[in-house]
Amino acid sequence: MLQGIGTVGGVGAVVWAAIKGANTFDTWRRQKLVERKLDQAERILTAAYKGRRALGYVRGVMMWGHELHAAQEQMKEKDGWGTQTEARQKRLVTAQAFYNRINRTKDEREALDQCLPMARALFSEELEQAIEKLNHQFWMVQVDVDSYVDDEGGTDAEFTKKLRRGMYAINPPAGEVNEVTEAMEVAVATIERICLPVLRLEASAAAG
Description:
Blueprint: H1 2-58, H2 65-76, H3 86-104, H4 106-123, H5 125-149, H6 157-167, H7 179-207
Helix pairs in contact: 1-4, 1-5, 1-7, 2-3, 3-5, 4-5, 5-6, 5-7
């Protein structure tokens, strides 16, 4: 009889240890997930802020003389450069200067792109789309620059203004919207809304 009770007690101890072990494993797994989300939230926010700053650099309203000079030297090496009109040459030089700026933001664009898989896996499709939207604005600027080259004469005033809004971080008149700037702000706001609480919650837990 006593031996039987001891056997039951031993089984109970094994079951208790198994449950305890499972709870410990679940706790460890949740902790690791929190750590991964924290790391990714920090990485995504850093990439977003650097991406926004890079877009600000690309769309800066001041095109410096050394940038234009470097672009002109590049264009002189292109076939048919000497046959272009002076007005078109100026447009081509400006466009090349923009392309050079965009090319210098390669690291920032790649950083945003590399955030996409974990943004979706650890957070949501909404966060993934916001990162894509921010990164997409580099392409939008390039498209506007491409169109600017052929917009000589500006026969469509509204189209010309839209191109300038895309190329430059300018504040449009009241009632109008700078589409690229607005898209950037919406994307970054979404990224902040999703990622900042993760960082702040972890900071609060650490302080506590």
